[in-house]
Each structure stands twice: as C-alpha cells, then as structure tokens.
Design a protein that fits this description.
Blueprint (H helix, E strand, L loop, with lengths): L5 H5 L9 H23 L6 E5 L5 H10 L4 E6 L14 E4 L12 E7 L8 H10 L1 E13 L14 H13 L6 H11 L3 E8 L2 E3 L3 H19 L5 H12 L4 E3 L2 E8 L3
Helix pairs in contact: 2-3, 2-7, 4-6, 5-7, 7-8
Length: about 270
C-alpha cells in the first residue's frame, strides 16, 4: 500500500496535506469540549481501559488519559500515527490501524470512542461491529458523526454560504462521506444488539474569525480545487466565502454532531 495515496482514497481529507494538522486542531477546538462533557457523563473513571479509533491529533485520547489515570489504559488508533507520537510520552499506547481491513484487540476495553470517522467509511456497519467486538462485556460504545444539513444556517441570510455547503458536501458525498452519518451510527448500534442505546445531537455557533471558524476556512481551501475543477463555483466566489468566514460580524451553525451510546451485553 502506498501511504501517500491509499488513505486519501478511503477518507475525504488527505492525512499528508500540509495543513491537515491545523485542520485537526481546529476541529478539536469545536468539538472537544462537548465530547469531554459526555465522557464525564458516561462515567469514565480511574482504571478503565479505553480505545480511541481515528484519534486524529489526539486531543480526546489525552482527555481520556486524564480520566482513567495511571491505573488505566488508553490506546489511540489511527491510520496515520505520526501526529500521535508525542502521546507515548504520556503513557498512551499508539496503534496503527486501518479499520477497513484490520481487526481491533478483542474484548479488552471498557469504552471505545470514535468521532467523525465512521461516516467516511465504505462499510460503516462492519466498522461498528469491529468496535463492538473490542468491548468487554458491559463496555460502552460511544460514536460521534454528523448531520450536515444545518451547516451555515445564519441570521445573516437564508442562503448564507449554502452554495458553498452544497458544492463541498456534494463532492464529499461522491468521495464516500455520508452526510447523515450520525443517523447510521444509531442504526448500526441497534443492529449490533447493544443495550441502553441512545443518541443525541449538538451544534456549536461559530463566529467569523475564530479558531472554530478557521476550521471551515481550511475545509474550503482543501475542497477548492475539487469545487472549481468540477465547475461548481469559481475562485472569486470561494475567496468571497473565505472573507465571510473571517468576518467577526458573521455567525453560523456547525453541523449537528450526533452522539450515539450503547453498552455491550454482559
């Protein structure tokens, strides 16, 4: 497998893109606070063994390490592990995994968490089954994926950046991204026979010029050559949209991030 080509075919974003680290960090700036709150709600505690699948830059894995303490175990798994190397100094195990082809350690974890990964995969139910198999009896599966329909809803105007959303997410869907991913997580959890299954959604209000807004600028810059190449929008329109995202006077909604929870039967 060519590490410079294969990941990009399985995932919308290229892990070797020169701005991918910043994109991951700004994504964490949006979503980590809510994820941390939900980990607390699930009762993640000292001594737990936990697995983060699709760990990205590792922010959630670091939070998990704080919660489980020195008596616990945290494993951060990703296809591209270069950005996670620093976690080893914090006692976090780093595991290179391609969830589409590799198996996870079976029956070892009190919690398996994944955020914004499953919705990009070609066989989502198979990936969820692998995560369930990694749980101990009674362990929790915690999946987070999005519904992109509300993205860019704003008081600015009814159609604020909606041409950008339609163009970008239309092409992402062609690349394998499921824009209703969080809904499929719930379906997969139920089909796996998990107990105490529930789901909820959250959004974050963006302000132009903030680190969170920067995430959407990076997304648009990454998608620019695809959008223009497909003839959907021109560079002038994309430049204007980037300026709108940089303007602190503008506020808009993120996607809905749907959190799905379920417990493996004892």
């Amino acid at each position: 497998m060519s590490s410079s080509e294969q990941p990009a075919k399985r995932y919308v974003f290229d892990p070797l893109w020169d701005q991918e680290t910043e994109r991951l960090l700004t994504n964490e700036a949006i979503w980590d606070p809510g994820t941390s709150e939900r980990l607390d709600r699930l009762g993640v505690a000292a001594g737990w063994s936990v697995l983060e699948v699709g760990a990205g830059y590792g922010g959630t894995a670091e939070r998990l390490a704080e919660l489980v303490g020195p008596t616990g175990r945290v494993t951060a798994a990703d296809l591209e592990t270069g950005r996670l190397a620093r976690l080893k100094d914090k006692g976090i195990e780093v595991l290179q995994v391609d969830i589409t082809t590799d198996e996870l350690p079976a029956g070892q974890f009190d919690l398996v968490h994944s955020r914004m990964l499953v919705q990009h995969l070609p066989d989502r139910p198979a990936a969820v089954r692998k995560m369930v198999a990694a749980l101990k009896p009674g362990g929790w599966l915690f999946l987070e994926d999005t519904d992109s329909l509300p993205l860019f809803r704003s008081v600015v105007s009814e159609d604020f950046l909606q041409d950008i959303r339609a163009a970008g997410y239309g092409l992402m869907r062609e690349s394998g991204h499921e824009p209703r991913g969080g809904h499929f997580d719930l379906q997969a959890a139920l089909e796996c026979g998990l107990e105490d299954v529930s789901a909820e959604g959250r959004t974050v209000m963006m302000q132009g010029g903030s680190p969170q807004a920067r995430h959407y600028q990076l997304w648009l810059e990454f998608m620019r050559p695809r959008i223009t190449g497909a003839g959907l929008l021109d560079d002038a329109r994309i430049d204007a949209a980037l300026e709108e995202m940089a303007d602190p006077a503008n506020r808009w909604l993120s996607q809905i991030l749907i959190s799905t929870y379920g417990r493996r039967p004892r």
